[in-house]
UniProtKB/TrEMBL annotation:
Signal peptide: none annotated. It comes from Fervidicella metallireducens AeB. Transmembrane segments: none annotated. Residues 4-245, 298-532 form the ABC transporter domain. GO terms for cellular component: ATP-binding cassette (ABC) transporter complex. One of its GO terms (molecular function) is ATP hydrolysis activity. Keywords: ATP-binding, Cell membrane, Membrane, Nucleotide-binding, Repeat, Translocase, Transport. Probably part of an ABC transporter complex. Responsible for energy coupling to the transport system. Belongs to the ABC transporter superfamily. It is found in: Cell membrane. It is a peripheral membrane protein. It holds the Pfam family DUF3744. PANTHER family: ABC TRANSPORTER ATP-BINDING PROTEIN BC_2655-RELATED, HEAVY METAL TRANSPORTER. This is Heme ABC transporter ATP-binding protein.
């Protein structure tokens, strides 16, 4: 008997006219490790909520068919009983924290199970040590960065005795090193504790670096594919439904290499049989990109910042420029000082040493409001920015505060919502949107103001590949109008495809300022900043090319569509 079983299961939320899940038939066996993937709105999170009891106990609706989890029907049980069998990490960590400190939050499961305090303390410390967050045991969860919150959530699930562990976007806010560490932990729970693992995630390549038994692909509320990674990757199923294939798979297919399940290409080392074809394509067609000089719009000169007078500097002696119409990616591990640096540029934080210039003007003493007229800043967590109930009102709020007339505001807001793929939600309550949609709302509210420089902290986290491509294409368009874009990202694919340059930070210091291709083909920088070597770079090793930076540049642009090759 399957551990989890859906039979002809259909579900409709109370506030919607049409079902979100349609005729789901799915069996998951005990001990399996499953990846559930699909574009936004496909129903994958709804499916997960049915398993962990959030449906029907938090989200109400009507259903037909049957669902059993470990022999019980969740909708006939209680959320407390389901929690004993299904442990969950939510995508929006702020909605999951219940403790006043990190330690209290991780101890929540132990407290519910009346675990003795001495055993509880050891378990909490071991869990936090596992995710490298023991030093934060007394910290308030909401003071942590997005990546640190995600680690605490993982620690919390390590303290449960649940047989089924459900991870909803577990990698959304993690740097490359931390995401690998998170997947290592998930892998260990699967192999060593025989847990049944269900992962809902957009970052398919990162998940597939660790073995999974099946990929379940959803679209429009239905299961459209269910197979092994080799079966799914050998076809064009992922791209057909708006999902991103692993980069090395895209590189192989760009060379018209026909893939078969028996090629076992879910493991990159098995691509060695295609080595000659890849190398020939690269050496025959590669041409150097032509870079053009642009005028600096923002200049940082020896910037240092610390929180308190007697504390150590968080960022130290940072100098670089950003040109007009340039897109720059700021890379580095969680806690490297990336977000602090961008808060200093926007004026939210005041640096103690150095100078910042906008064009020829020194802006060190400009107010946040004055800087806000030229520099737009979008925070990592959308819940920290949203102040209005309705989507249209949130995007319009900055324009209203600056005294624009209603006709102008309506036109500007509707145009921005169209561009950001949010127009159909203009009259929706913001809190009814997904986490990724909320992020796009906050980005739209800044773009409506038409700043000269836009700073984005993890702009695409939580967004599916279709929305990611549409939004980044929009950023490229506004970049060509002369607007400069500075973005923090843990997504090496995004940096490769869209940024001309990478600023790399580690321990508050700038350790690299170079093209993204040079940075991500340099193992010393990758290791020092806890970045991730891309699978195209690994293909370069397999093909034994002499210049991996050029190889990386060639296949990145070939995959993207041939620009600048």
């Amino acid at each position: 008997m399957a551990l989890i079983s859906f039979k002809n299961f259909t579900f409709r939320y109370s506030n919607l006219k049409t079902p979100t899940l349609k005729n789901i038939n799915l069996d998951i066996e005990a001990g399996q490790k499953i990846l559930i993937a699909g574009p936004s709105g496909s129903g994958k999170s709804t499916l997960a909520h049915c398993i962990n009891g959030l449906i029907p106990f938090r989200y109400k609706g009507d259903f037909s068919g049957s669902l059993e989890v470990k022999g019980m029907k969740p909708y006939e049980s209680s959320i407390h009983e389901i929690r004993r069998h299904v442990g969950t990490i939510l995508q929006d960590q702020d909605g999951q924290f219940v403790g006043l400190s990190v330690g209290e939050d991780v101890a929540f499961s132990y407290e519910n199970d009346n675990v003795p305090i001495d055993i509880m303390k050891i378990g909490v410390e071991n869990a936090l040590q596992e995710v490298e967050m023991l030093n934060f045991i007394k910290e308030v969860p909401h003071n942590l960065s997005g990546g640190q919150k995600q680690k605490v959530s993982v620690a919390g699930i390590l303290t449960t005795n649940s047989d089924i562990l459900l991870f909803d976007e577990p990698l959304a806010n993690l740097d490359p090193y931390s995401s690998k560490k998170a997947m290592d932990i998930i892998d260990s729970l699967h192999k060593n504790q025989n847990k049944t693992i269900i992962i809902v995630e957009h970052r398919i390549e990162d998940v597939l670096e660790h073995d999974v038994d099946r990929i379940i692909l959803m679209h429009n509320g239905e299961i459209v594919a269910d197979g092994s990674p080799d079966e799914i990757l050998s076809k064009n199923i992922l791209s057909r439904y708006g999902l991103r294939e692993p980069l090395y798979i895209e590189a192989l297919k760009s060379c018209n290499i026909q893939l078969r399940p028996e090629d076992k290409i879910s493991k990159i080392e098995n691509t060695i049989k295609f080595k000659d074809k890849l190398k020939e394509d690269f050496e025959t067609n590669f041409e150097n990109n032509r870079n053009t000089e642009k005028n600096p719009i923002i200049s940082l000169e020896n910037i240092s910042y610390k929180y308190f007078k007697d504390s150590d500097y968080i960022i130290k002696d940072i100098s670089f420029t950003v040109a007009s119409g340039e897109m720059v990616a700021v890379l580095g591990n969680n806690g490297a000082g990336k977000s602090t640096l961008l808060k200093v540029i926007s004026g939210i934080a005041r640096h103690q040493q150095g100078t910042i210039r906008f064009m020829d003007d020194v802006i060190d003493k400009w107010s946040v409001k004055k800087r806000g007229q030229i520099i737009g800043y979008v925070m990592q967590n959308p819940n920290h920015m949203i102040t209005k109930n309705i989507v249209f009102d949130e995007v319009a709020s900055g324009l209203k505060n600056n005294g624009y007339d209603e006709k102008f505001i309506k036109e500007r807001v509707e145009e921005t919502l169209q561009i950001c793929g949010l127009y159909q939600y203009r009259n929706w309550p913001v809190m009814s949107l997904s986490y990724g949609q909320k992020k796009r709302v906050t980005i739209a509210s800044i773009l409506a103001m038409q700043p000269k420089v836009v700073i984005l902290d993890e702009p695409t986290a939580g967004q599916d590949y279709k929305n990611y491509r549409e939004f980044m294409s929009f950023l490229e368009k506004i970049k060509h109008t002369g607007i400069s874009i500075i973005l923090i990202t843990h997504d090496m694919h995004l940096a490769l495809e869209y940024a001309e340059r990478a600023i790399v930070m580690s321990q508050g210091q700038l350790i690299a300022n170079d093209t993204v291709y040079n940075v991500l083909s340099d193992r010393n920088i990758i290791e020092k900043a806890n970045l991730r070597e891309t699978s195209i770079s690994k293909l370069g090793d397999i093909c034994e090319v002499k210049d991996k930076s050029k190889f990386l540049s060639y296949f990145t642009n070939k995959i993207k569509g041939g620009a600048d090759i």
